[in-house]
Amino acid sequence: MNAPLRRAGVVILVLFGLLFANLNWVQAYKADDYRTNDYNRRVVVAQYERPRGIIEAGGQGVATNKVTDDALKYLRVYPRKEVYAPVLGYRPVGLAATGIENAENDFLSGESDKLFADRVKDMFTGNNTGGGNVLLTLNTKAQETAWKELNDNERGVDKGAAIAIDPQTGAVQAMVSMPSFDPNPLVSHDEKAAAAAYNKLNKNPDQPLLNRSTAETKPPGSVFKVIISAAALQNGYTTETEIEAGREYRESGAVIRNSEDEVCPGSQIDLKAALTTSCNTGYARLGVTLGRDKVLATAKAFGFEDDQLTVGDLEGSGLPVAMSDTGKIANPDGSVDKGALAQSSLGQRDVRMTPLQGALIAATVANGGKQMRPYLVQKLTSPDLRTIYTADPKTLRTPINGQVASDLKDMMVSVVENGTGKRARIDGMEVGGKTGTAQNAEGADPHGWFVGFAFNDKGEAVSAVCVMLENVPGGHASAEAARIAGLIMKAAAGQGGD
Amino acid sequence: MPASSPASTGEMARIPGMKTQRNAELGLLAFAMILVAAYGATVEASRIGEITPTFWVPAALLSILFLGLHFVVRYTAPYADPVLIPAVALINGLGVGFLRRLDIGDALSDKQPVPSVFAGIGGRQLVWTLIALILAAILLLVVRDHKIVSRYAYTLGLTGIVLVMIPAVLPASISEVNGAKLWIRLGAFSIQPGEFAKIALVSFFAYYLVRKREVLSLASRRVLGIDFPRGRDLGPVVTVWLLSLLVLVFEKDLGTALLYFGLFVVTLYVATERASWLIIGLLLFFGGVYVAYLLGASVGGPFANFYDRAQVWLNPFDNENYERLGGSYQLVQGLLSLGTGGLFGSGPGGGSPRFVPEVQNDFIFAGMGEEIGLFGLSALLVLYLLIVERGLRSALAVRDSFGKLVAGGLSFTLGLQIFVILGGITGLIPLTGQTTPFLSSGGSSLMANWLLIAMLLRISNAARGPAASGGGTDRAGGGPKKAPVQLHGAMTEVIKP
């Protein structure tokens, strides 16, 4: 019986050899993998050992920390809850962050190379000085006004977005989305409660987690006429050029009418008056006359079809911006679909735009044709408040020259002075803009848009804004958007707000 | 107690010139206890920030307990293997130390004062150690010759089968823990009857096979150069195979099934020296497991649990497996704990073992792995290997077939159990609900495994004692002389090259 016993001994040796080999695999070969694995709670605890950087707007902390008694030392706190949530995002325990919390995560957590010197210093002093701070471009007055006015809109609309940009730099002054969410429950250290809160928000059909100002595109309606106007002015038209209008325009099966019978019933109307009154038949004909290629090229020059843009710092990290799109405007064989071109010229059919893109159009006009790259991060500072980065405004593109911009500005000011955008007027400031009322689904109320800009009494462009309200009941959908846009620009210019 | 030996040493049946090596045992035991004390001190320094004046108390208490067993062995089994007790004592002591480390960690994170030595799971483990050692001592005192165990073979066999089947028959509310039905839970108490079953079953198999070995090994048919047994002799193998598959399906535990079947096939192989039994056994077992896996994938029902576990094993980091209730969470946390420990570990008391569910029970090896690293765990593995190989060596040295089979079977079973649980924790094989012998918190495991060690001590005493060289007389045990008569053919072994 001894021979098999010896063999049993060898079997045990082999089994233990396997255990030893596998242990080497787990503890030596895979050790680094496992040490930094997302499921490894130790990673999370270590992250929460030092305070995360503060996110500030206008000297006010909008993402801060609170010391707790939990295993995780610092709790993230968002004092202004819904107001800044679409911009800040949130940073849940053990999962990926969103918004600026995600875009600037390396810096906020202190792991960024930019804070290497601080980490080395920590090693010697034994302190945990925490992550770097982020200063946002947001103007707290404009942001609070935008949030308040959007939510208190006179039409009872429950979905929409507003964004304001400094036309001269691209700095975002306000960015709100409605409905929004309170990020605080989502970052609770009680992960089950956090997951439950997330699931509830995620299941909400109104999509409160969606940042409607950057991540959602909607048909822009007549706002798109600014693009058509730009295309016309670049191709020999002036503000005085008479274009064909009328009560009705039929083109390849598409029937274009004006919003009301008294809008441009005559056969001719000049370009400025056409924009002022938002003449549908005029612009549809103008788009078809200019041709598809010119319309698409101008739209692209203003930023349509760009799926790379992010809004954050100017080094590349930020909130992703959904691509605004004109659609193909083509028949199945690739030839120009004139009916579609007529409808697209009015911002209908397949044309889709983010509110950010709307604000960029207005900002470009206000800034003499130069479109500045939008950004949210003004400054990054180290834990001891040394400045590590300051935003240096960059021109993103120059779709139109100064003359065209100046003509467009005149036309858009006329819209607010004499036309459909009257409710955007601000005392003591020169305001221009364009309204849009976009049909979307059969039987649904239209979306109301307003894009516009404001110049102060020194003639400086101080703010460009876009307000979008989804499914506005009761007609004149854009009037309420224009009113809110005016109040936001006024607040951004430092003349009002709460 | 019969005392026929010189009063000066108090030892019995001592033959001049034969080394008992009891003093070596004492020395090794002292070394082991110093290590345990040092472990306790390191834990306190790391967790509490200072070494309390009472850091040595658990080690001292354990020393007294093991010293007690040492003296029992001195009197009742003087020639027993001197390595077994110190090696097991070291593992047992480190287990108590780690459980106390959990107590201290839990108390501090709840802002409670440092618990006393007798509090918490560490304190309970101390008490269980005391009880286990008393049982081991009783076994050594009562069973003076391992051969008398064969008298009760059928009783033990029946007991073993009943113990195995109880959790399968009981409702899941009483017997199921973490998806495996291996328990009897009564209020705060829970025992794993399977732990005791393995000793009873090995004893029964040994007795049965000693009687049947000739018929099982001689009558055969030769197919493809391998001797295969006759169909009717396959009966017991098929019975145990079915039994272990029933365990697999109804107790939902591959490891336990593997353990029972493995111990039977190995004792069968050792008894008959026929490799064909091994081949048949392995084919039957892995064939059965594979069919269970396929059935789990297609039919589900009682096989679904096994299929799920196999999936968890194959893809532990898969998000779906990880998030699922009863999925790979525990396995993954154990792996991450081990990986975080790396080569050297974070030092005793320096890790976060509570991130691993059930770290005091099945996953104690993973929890310790974070703190003592690959090097520490390797040392533990070597200790376990030492115990198993010393047991097998006793089996080689003892002369009677029954003793060989019992010692061989028990040692192999212990080795297999260690492989099953540690392989499960480290992702080598599908995870099962076994305890880690001598480390895991809990009485059944500790008691059963100390009984196993006592049995090995008893047999090693017979193997190394004067009886081994003294011919037919059986003096080492001093037990009833009738015992060998009970074993038909036990001494008629044909010596093979």
TrEMBL record, chain A:
Limits of the Penicillin-binding protein transpeptidase domain: 160-486
Coiled coil: none
Gene3D superfamilies per UniProt: DD-peptidase/beta-lactamase superfamily, Penicillin-binding protein 2a (Domain 2)
Residue stretches making up the Penicillin binding protein A dimerisation domain: 52-134
Pfam families assigned: PBP_dimer_2 (PF21922), Transpeptidase (PF00905)
InterPro entries: Beta-lactam/transpept, Beta-lactam/transpept-like, PBPA_dimer, PCN-bd_Tpept
PANTHER family given in the database record: PENICILLIN-BINDING PROTEIN 4B (PTHR30627:SF24), PEPTIDOGLYCAN D,D-TRANSPEPTIDASE (PTHR30627)
Protein name per UniProt: Penicillin-binding protein 2
Native source species: Paractinoplanes ovalisporus
